[in-house]
Amino acid sequence: xxxxxxxxxxxxxxxxxxxxxxxxxxxxxxxxxxxxxxxxxxxxxxxxxxxxxxxxxxxxxxxxxxxxxxxxxxxxxxxxxxxxxxxxxxxxxxxxxxxxxxxxxxxxxxxxxxxxxxxxxxxxxxxxxxxxxxxxxxxxxxxxx
Length: 145
Prior knowledge:
Layout: H1 2-13, H2 18-27, H3 31-80, H4 85-121, H5 126-132, H6 134-144
């Protein structure tokens, strides 16, 4: 038994990178590439989850203490720009609101235009394909995860 294992060891594992070649032969994949993709994917998912957690904590404190933050910002603004702060403090929220509204309207317009373009081209939109046939899109959704 020992001689047999020794011959297998000499044949398959004695050379550098022989184990990787054996795994590649069995699985028909490069194990190092799979490992790098796995590390990259889990790292990206961890980074996204950490960013989302930070955003939720920030939003919690903004909703909880927003009025005090605005008051402190007004005090700071009056000290830094005493002659112009009242005008800035009225214009900035209106500008942000208009920007968000405009971006939302642009997104709705793009969705309508692309939906009509898909319909004219005879291509089923990815949104409709997921909604109408979720079992066919399951592989795609799992691939994204």
